[in-house]
Amino acid sequence: xxxxxxxPEALLAELDIDFDGPRVAAVGxxxxxxxxxxxxxxxxxxxxxxxxxxxxxxxxxxxxxDLDIPPPGDVRKCLLALTPDESIWxxxxxxxxxxxDVAGHSLGNLILAALADIEGSFELALMRAEGLLKASGSVVxxxxxxxxxxxxxxxxxxxxxxxxxxxxxxxxxxxxxxxxAAATPRAIDAIEAADQIVLGPGSLxxxxxxxxxxxxxxxxxxxxxxxxxxxxxxxxxxxxxxxMDAADHLxxxxxxxxxxxxxxxxxxxxxxxxPLPLQSVSYDAGILSTYGADLTxxxxxxxxxxxxxxxxxxxxxxxxxxxx
Length: 324
Hints:
Layout: H1 8-15, E1 23-28, H2 30-40, E2 46-51, H3 58-67, H4 72-81, H5 88-94, H6 107-119, H7 122-133, E3 138-141, E4 148-153, E5 156-159, H8 161-165, E6 173-177, H9 185-193, E7 196-199, H10 204-212, H11 217-223, E8 227-231, H12 246-257, E9 264-268, H13 285-289, E10 294-298, H14 312-322
Parallel strand pairs: 1-2, 1-7, 2-3, 7-8, 8-9, 9-10
Antiparallel strand pairs: 4-5, 4-6
């Protein structure tokens, strides 16, 4: 089969997805979403990643505006998270240039940009990449184009994901531009067909809420009959979640997106060494119970890495026990 002119249905057939187990849709972006995807692979029959498309930093921030494609960085990370087996394709997608005009670019980002041009759309490019990597799931951009993230605060408007991520204090509203943006149909389909939808962990405003604010995403979550799970972050971020506990995170998510309250909340209960001025995300079981959700706590920390991260195996064990 040639690359050009390939129908989406044919690409999906090539992926040979196994549906034996619950269908899990995870919404967000960045490293946190990658950890959830690795966790979900341990119990799900199908995993769909719905990825935010408002990243304006690094390699993605350089490629997306000039090539008129969604930022490829987060979707590339998700593709790799759904690719458990080592291969030359995985090494190629992980490779990052350090010198010359391409310094700072991930080769995987450049390949996705090239595939988008060859296939005629970024969605088809991702589907082709899933086949090349033999990914055990699908990665779907929340919207078909690069969006700009906008936040409103008492001090005024903040433009762009990077700038918003640095803001300390309450954010009153989050939007994406252009106002005509709409969620990709595959994202809506994946959410509505899911048995379990996972929000978090990850950058609360600039990843999770950024994806949820794409018109159509939150509405699809609220329509679905899936179990909705919120996974709390391990630690605060110096900026968008500085000084916030788990209830503050959840309240901000509900307030800024209008999403229905989760049926389950997952929090880490083990101690972590956090560099000041950051702190671990604490939780009060009594306060969280007012949201009407079941609270599950466990040791979720990956002790094999230096920076605090969720352990995919531990998180997967927890998510499996609370899946319907």
